UniProtKB/TrEMBL annotation:
Species assigned in the record: Blastococcus mobilis
UniProt keyword tRNA processing, yes or no: no
Database matches in PANTHER family: AFLATOXIN B1 ALDEHYDE REDUCTASE, ALDO-KETO REDUCTASE YAKC [NADP(+)]
Ranges where the NADP-dependent oxidoreductase domain occurs: 20-310
Signal peptide limits: none
Name of the protein in its database record: Predicted oxidoreductase
Pfam families in UniProt: Aldo_ket_red
Taxonomy, superkingdom: Bacteria
Length: 336
């Protein structure tokens, strides 16, 4: 039985989801060894706590994550708002390739439905915009999936303002998934206003700064050997030391609020609007329960002003990604 965690609505067509979601990527890749049993237990605990908005992608673990999520929600499908994505594949150089062609949209959707073991995907994102394919073509193919009853709502991830404007001319977009946290505030420049102009909900990924804002990471040695953060610009060298100062300031305010640093960071994201639903990722029940506690942290106007001073846009030292192919597929037009 689910708890009474509040719900929020994404988009103008009424996609109601839990006010906090669960990012499932780390259960299959990027953050050290995976533990299937604990991952499934974490998803079950999320549902019990009312965290029913689950986020995955066909590229996470090259399909492994969708299979894992599908196994975990078997028998509980009616409790879940299920989001997945398409368009990215791993390339031999360690980066990513993007494919927004109509035929790829259809093929990826069918494969995701099969791996997830479901008849319909609640929210289907284009994971990155393909700069070589008109977004009208991609979203047009996604809209066909809605008409066929295979997808309920459409989303974009890391899309530019220009791409958002073009996409909504084809079909309503319920959600924009982009990185947003106290140390990544690029979204606020232009994209956030355009999304809200079109009634698009915001789904921030990495709202805890890839775990850094929890205060649990004090040295690069805290990462497992196969943890991708070891090569991440913000987690190496002088950038690491500089960014620790931000965490120290967050920790101080969190202590005053009787919260953990991670809870304060999540509460800040949730306080940015009722159209904002962050999806912190974890593969452990203990961290999930801590994250859910953020919903009870109330930030005053003074608190928000202090946090803006502590973490103004651009505060983080180092880029978002070591390999730029992970970033904006349509970055040349992002400011448009």
């Amino acid at each position: 039985m689910s708890s009474d965690l509040a719900t929020r609505t994404l988009g103008r067509d009424g996609l109601a989801v839990s006010a906090l979601g669960l990012g499932c990527m780390g259960m299959s890749q990027m953050y050290g060894a995976a533990d299937r049993q604990e991952s499934i237990a974490t998803i079950h605990r999320a549902l019990d706590l009312g965290v029913t908005f689950l986020d995955t992608s066909d590229v996470y673990g090259d399909g492994h994550n969708e299979e894992l999520v599908g196994e975990a929600i078997s028998g509980r499908r009616d409790e879940v708002q299920l989001a997945t994505k398409f368009s990215l594949t791993h390339s031999p150089d360690g980066g990513m390739t993007i494919d927004g062609r109509s035929e790829n949209v259809r093929a990826c959707a069918e494969a995701s439905l099969r791996r997830l073991g479901v008849d319909v995907i609640d929210l289907y994102y284009q994971h990155r915009v393909d700069p070589t394919v008109p977004i009208e073509d991609t979203v047009g193919a996604m809209a066909e999936l809605v008409a066929q009853g295979k997808v309920r709502y459409l989303g974009l991830s890391e899309a530019s303002a220009a791409s958002i404007r073009r996409a909504v001319a084809v079909h309503p977009i319920a959600a924009l998934q982009s990185e947003w946290s106290l140390w990544t505030r690029d979204l606020e420049d232009t994209v956030l206003g355009v999304a809200r102009e079109h009634g698009i909900g915001i789904v921030p990924f990495s709202p805890l700064g890839r775990g850094f804002l929890t205060g649990a990471i004090t040295s690069p040695a805290d990462f497992a050997e196969d943890d991708w953060r070891r090569s991440h610009p913000r987690f190496t060298g002088e950038a690491f030391a500089a960014n620790l100062r931000l965490v120290d300031a967050v920790r101080e305010l969190a202590a005053e609020k009787g919260a953990t640093p991670g809870q304060l960071a999540l509460a800040w994201v949730m306080a940015q609007g009722d159209d904002v639903v962050p999806i912190p990722g974890t593969k452990r029940r203990s961290y999930l329960e801590e994250n859910v506690g953020a919903a009870a942290v109330e930030l005053t106007g003074e608190d928000l002003t202090r946090l803006d001073a502590i973490a103004p846009p651009g505060v983080a030292v180092g880029g978002r990604y070591a390999n730029t192919s992970y970033a904006y597929g349509d970055s040349p037009e992002r400011a448009g």
